[in-house]
Design goal:
The longest helix has 21 residues. About 45% of the residues lie in helices and about 15% in strands. The protein has two domains: about 100 residues, NAD(P)-binding Rossmann-like Domain (Rossmann fold); about 70 residues, no CATH class. It has a five-stranded parallel β-sheet with strand order 3-2-1-4-5, sandwiched between helices. Strands 6-7 form a two-stranded antiparallel sheet. Helix 5 packs parallel to helix 8 and helix 6 packs antiparallel against helix 8. The chain has about 230 residues and is an alpha/beta fold. It contains eight helices and seven strands, in the order E-H-E-H-E-E-H-E-E-E-H-H-H-H-H. Strand 2, helix 2 and strand 3 form a beta-alpha-beta unit.
Length: about 230
């Protein structure tokens, strides 16, 4: 009687990741793989202004347009040793475990092998984008499904109005630096326009009401500053 082959018990090593946002503008990024997963990663990377090189015998439809626009470079072949020279970041999404392991081993930089945390030195979180607001959620690789569920919940809490409000705040921050000379009053104003109270007004009454509140706070701060 043949015995079933026993598999070693599954275990997940918990890693205490250090959360960070990277500036990839003009940095060399190499993406190994050209399938749907790689395409999704590449589309996100294009928005960062990175210099992207894709290494893959074939690429997904849609990426050809990005090549024509000069957004990405394509090396039409399998990965070779030396392809990662001067790379700042590497994303690996091939369908070969052997190739993925080799790239991870060769990389002397930031490397992420999709769906294989053990081959990565960083993982990509679930992300909500309300530019310039970015919210990243991670369960340290324990449950990507839970990260996704939390992301969906937070997407309802942080709508596009937060994007509009942050663009408004940018203008008021510049004005505060120029016209509120007293450092203490300036800090108070900047704290007030980013307070929980403002967030509640934004959610309940909308952007127009918040604009009026912020404008009054600014006028008050400038007047008080001139009286000093």
């Amino acid at each position: 009687m043949k015995h079933k082959k026993e598999h070693p018990p599954y275990s997940l090593i918990e890693t205490n990741y250090y959360p960070i946002f990277l500036n990839l503008n003009k940095k060399k990024v190499v993406v190994c793989g050209g399938g749907k997963v790689a395409k999704r990663k590449i589309i996100s990377l294009i928005k960062t202004g990175a210099n992207i090189t894709v290494i893959s015998p074939e690429i997904s439809k849609g990426l050809e347009k990005e090549i024509e626009k000069g957004k990405i470079k394509h090396i039409k072949r399998q990965y070779r040793k030396g392809d990662l020279k001067k790379a700042f970041l590497v994303i690996v999404a091939t369908d070969s475990r052997v190739i993925n392991e080799q790239i991870s081993k060769d990389a002397a930089c930031l490397v992420n092998v999709v769906d294989t945390p053990s081959l990565c030195n960083f993982i990509v979180p679930s992300v909500i984008r309300r530019p310039p607001l970015t919210i990243a959620i991670s369960t340290s690789g324990i449950s990507p499904a839970l990260s996704k569920s939390i992301r969906k919940e937070l997407e309802k809490l942080y709508g596009t109005e937060f994007s509009s409000y942050l663009k408004l705040l940018k203008k008021y921050r510049i004005s505060a630096m120029n016209f509120i000379k007293d450092a203490k009053k300036r800090r108070r104003f900047l704290k007030d326009i980013g307070s929980e109270k403002i967030v509640r007004v934004l959610r309940m009454k909308g952007l127009r009401e918040v604009k009026e509140v912020v404008n009054e706070l600014f006028k008050k701060s400038v007047v008080n500053n001139n009286l000093c």
